[in-house]
Design goal:
The protein is an all-alpha fold. The chain is 71% helix and 3% strand. It is built from five helices and two strands. It has a two-stranded parallel ribbon with strand order 1-2.
Length: 137
Amino acid sequence: MAKGNHCITVDDNKWDALAGVVNGSRSAWIERQIDIVLNIDDEESKLIQEIENLDNKMNVAKDKLCQIRKAKKERLEAANVFDECMVILNRLHDNLGCVGRNQIRSIAMKNKVPPDGLEEHCEELGLTIVNFMEVPK
C-alpha cells in the first residue's frame, strides 16, 4: 500500500489531548483506527498493538516493584530505628526474663519511636512481654 499526504481537520484541544494519551505518532494512531474501522489487520498493526499492551503491562509491573521496594525500605528503616531500643530491651530480658509494656513504652518515648511498633518488634523477636514490670534503678 502506498501512503500519501492527506489533510484532516481536528479541534486543537482534542489534538493536544490526544498527545497525552497516545504513545508515538498521532498520525499512525489515526491510521490504525481507520484500519480497525475498515477491518484491515496487518501484521505490523498487530505487533504495534501487542507492543503497546506489553509496554503498559511493564509500566504496571514497574510501579508495583517501586511500591514493594518502598515498603521494604520502610521496614528496614523501622528495624534500624528499633536497634538502639533493642539493646536495652534485650539486656532487660536477659537479666529479668521478661520486659514490661511500661518499660517498652518508656524506652520508646526516650528514643522517639512508636511504642506499639516497638512492642510488635519485641513480639516478633520472641521476647516475653508482661503488662507491668518494675523499672530497675
